[in-house]
Amino acid sequence: MEEYIRAKFAEYSGLSEAELFAPGATLASVLAASPRMTNSLDLMEALARTSNAVRKDHGVRVRLPALPLNTPTTEVLAAFLEEYDKQAEGAA
Q1: What pTM did the predictor assign?
Q2: Which phi-psi region, left, alpha or beta, contains residue 80 (left: φ > 0; alpha: ψ -120 to 50)?
Q3: Could you tell me the superkingdom of the organism this chain comes from (predicted)?
Q4: Which runs of consecutive H residues, i.e. helices, occur in the chain?
């Protein structure tokens, strides 16, 4: 699931996985570097589209908490995976 989420977030952000999950990368740095995102609403949309893709392709609804822009992208990924595991377990 980790590879899937990484790939989808990269697709929707317009950045490579290496750029998204580079050491020290935060939501703010991703927003600044992305050719597809100009503000935090675009960032929220990219995360929502990633979540919707998980629901569509894997049948699990993932809802992320509000995250500040200084959140490292590795923490965002961990939150995605934790919520996926929690919801997948509840659906079983």
Answers
A1: 0.90
A2: alpha
A3: Bacteria
A4: 2-13, 17-20, 27-33, 40-58, 73-91
Nearest to 5 by CA among 66, 91, 90, 88: 88
The upper half-sphere exposure of residue 14, i.e. CA atoms within 13 Å in the direction of its Cβ, equals 12
Per-residue pLDDT reduced to its tens digit, 6-20:
999 999 999 999 999
Half-sphere exposure for 36 (CA within 13 Å, toward CB): 14
- Which of 45, 41, 75, 36 is CA-nearest to residue 53? 45
- Check: CB of residue 39 under 8 Å from CB of residue 45: no
From CA 34, how far away is CA 32, in angstroms rounded?
6
Please give the radius of gyration of the chain, using alpha carbons only, rounded to the nearest integer: 12
